[in-house]
Amino acid sequence: MINLFRTEVYKLFISKSFWLVFIMSTLFGITMTSDSHTFITGYENIGVSFYYACLLMVFPILLGAISFGNDFGDRTINNGVCAGHSRFQIFICKVSAYFIGVNLVILFSPIVNVILNIILHRYTTVYFMNEGNILAKTIITTSLLGMAMSSVSIFIAFMFRDIGKTVGISVGIYFINISLLNSTNDIRTTIFRYLPLAQARLILYRPLIPNQFKDAVLIGICIILFFLSISYFLFKKAELR
């Protein structure tokens, strides 16, 4: 299983699709932040740097749709099963490698923005004492929420096993989520607050909403487990020819 996982990680890093998505998301995430000439306080740094993280989530959704869609189209998954690997091993290794890509795509540019703001605005050591814990929580929670959104794409990929339908439906669901969030003035007062994209915004509210990180982590974990469980069930029952 370790060798299978290494193979999947290797395939990720030599994939043109991954590097294209990674470069696009990084450029978007860095260029869409506030003007470097605008002073950003240490208190605002995390919120400003991670503000576009929920928009960046469309990129790993595309990556997952293309990767899993290609694996079914090229019969890579079928060949893995024929080679004697269990479906559980294949599923776990492919999803784990994909989630590595998800986190790199979502987190790289926000972290770069945090570092650039620290350098440009010369925050003192007091900043790290006050904001270090919040920054760590923001990174971990954003990671979970990104994987939660991406697990929906995995589910669609294993349901249709077609790259065109997977890309179209995954991106469509993403933009429906964005539209729902934009349709309300206060996310906290609607049922839409349970969406991963909504949670990615709520963790950036200042002052911090009580227990917001705990709520976001719980929602992220539940969505990941739910969609991955259904995806594996579909994969287990699928007839691969």
Would you mind describing this structure in some detail?
Keywords: Membrane, Transmembrane, Transmembrane helix. This is ABC-2 family transporter protein. It comes from Clostridium beijerinckii (strain ATCC 51743 / NCIMB 8052). The chain crosses the membrane at residues 12-30, 50-69, 95-119, 139-160, 167-184, 216-235. The chain has 241 residues and is mainly alpha-helical. It has one domain. 78% of the residues lie in helices and 0% in strands. Helix 3 runs antiparallel to helix 7 (87-121). The two termini are 23 Å apart.
Which secondary structure elements does this structure contain, and how are they paired or packed?
Blueprint: H1 2-13, H2 16-31, H3 42-49, H4 53-56, H5 58-73, H6 76-82, H7 87-121, H8 125-160, H9 163-182, H10 196-202, H11 212-237
Helix pairs in contact: 1-7, 2-5, 2-7, 3-7, 5-7, 5-8, 5-9, 7-8, 8-9, 8-10, 8-11, 10-11
Transmembrane segments: 12-30, 50-69, 95-119, 139-160, 167-184, 216-235
Protein name: ABC-2 family transporter protein
Keywords: Membrane, Transmembrane, Transmembrane helix
Compact summary:
The protein has eleven helices and no strands. With 241 residues, the chain is an all-alpha fold.
Determine the structural class based on helices, strands and strand pairing: mainly alpha
Could you say how many structural domains there are in total?
1
What kind of oligomer do you see? Answer: single chain
Helix and strand pattern: HHHHHHHHHHH
State the helicity in percent bands: over 70%
**What number is the mean pLDDT?**
86
Low-confidence runs: none
- Sheet having the most strands: none
Overall shape: it is globular
